[in-house]
Amino acid sequence: QVQLVESGGGSVQAGGSLRLSCATSGDPTRSVCVGWFRQAPGKEREGVAVLLTAPSNPYYAESVKGRFTISRDNAKGTLYLQMDSLKPEDTAMYYCAADQKKYGGCYFTDAVDYTYWGQGTQVTVSS
Q1: What are phi and psi of 29, to 5 degrees?
Q2: Do the beta carbons of residue 49 and residue 58 sit within 8 Å?
Q3: Separation CA 86–CA 30 (nearest Å)
Q4: Are 88 and 125 within 8 A, CB to CB?
Q5: Do residues 51 and 31 lie in contact, with contact meaning Cβ atoms separated by under 8 Å?
Q6: What's residue 68's pLDDT?
Q7: Sign (positive or negative) of CA dihedral 108, 99, 101, 55
Q8: Closest by CA position to 22, among listed 11, 9, 12, 10
Q9: pLDDT tens readout for residues 91-117
Q10: How far apart are CA 48 and CA 7, in angstroms?
């Protein structure tokens, strides 16, 4: 039903920037809950930036607040993650994810609550 394809990852030096994109199909981003997650080797997948129902929208992990910005283009069905002031600890595989709305909106930031996933795009930040 819902398909997601990430792009925009790469290798950058600390302090650099990247913009990740997630093309969606099957459902527009406005009809489902969407967000960005990341997973480093040996670590659990964590929510990075997730679009939620107001007033708690958007959600950002404390480690990325002030540096990352999530946005979406509903007409194109595309989700974006602007990543600035990158740090080596941001190195991970980044995934976009989506799920049907629950309880009338979007309230979850845990990876386990999301059904549809992209293939991931690698982000590597060198010191």
Answers
A1: -60, -25
A2: yes
A3: 28
A4: yes
A5: no
A6: 98
A7: positive
A8: 9
A9: 999 999 999 999 999 999 999 999 999
A10: 16
Q: Rounded distance, CA 109 to CA 51, Å?
A: 9
Pair 53, 10: CB distance under 8 Å:
no
User: What would the two tokens of residue 24 be?
Assistant: 């969606």
**Structure tokens, 61:** 């992990």
Question: Looking at 1-127, which runs of residues are DSSP E strands?
Answer: 3-7, 10-13, 18-25, 32-39, 46-50, 59-60, 68-73, 78-83, 92-100, 116-117, 121-126
The span from the first CA to the last CA of the chain, in angstroms, equals 40
Q: Which two tokens stand for residue 84?
A: 């600035």
State the CB neighbour count (10 A cutoff) for residue 66.
9
